[in-house]
Fold:
Amino acid sequence: MKLIRSDIYENLKMALATLRGNKPALIPDCLGVMIGVITVMLISSIISGVDTAVKKETRSHTAPTQSSLSSYNPAFTSPVFRVKRRMRKDLTYDDAVALTQLPAVELSVPFLDISNNFFGSKITVSSAGKTSAAVSLQGTLPDFERAGTQIIKEGRFFTQYENDNNEEVCVVGSSVGTDFFPFGSPVGQTIGIGGNQFRVVGVLEKRTFCSRR
Structure:
């Protein structure tokens, strides 16, 4: 046992002596090892970043997280198409509920355009002495906020309680808030929609549209 320990000690002394006698060579060797390790780390980081970017871009083209379904294409306005459109069945609330049963669907929320009344006339919006029939009106459910397609800038979205009790509350877009309430916050103010007074509970952020090339 003593012989083995003595051998280890002698070998350690020889190794240290060799290092002390070759200091000029030792420094380049250490630098070489350090450069090699740093290079490997940089290459790994670059590969990881490229992999993440490719996966993100692939998902954006092949697996969209949000989709909009309609019984017609609003871009088609020819007389023949308008006749065909009237013959199609509208999507219903039950259709939205049925979509949630699909394994790939996490959330399905109905979204109804109500800009026109039963007779096809535009519903007017008014407040602070200003009236307009060019405001786009949509009806939806509180779960629409979870879809993440639009973000609340100020205030909040209407609640399930307000929806269940048919309370006359609304969320307005950024442009509507600026046009009808130019001197203060729209939240807490009232706005007339089709002759009824609705209390504004929230304002949406201005939407930006980006084109892909």
Remarks:
- Confidence is low (pLDDT under 50) at residues 209-213.
- The longest helix spans residues 23-62.
- The chain is about 45% helix and 15% strand.
- The radius of gyration is 33 Å.
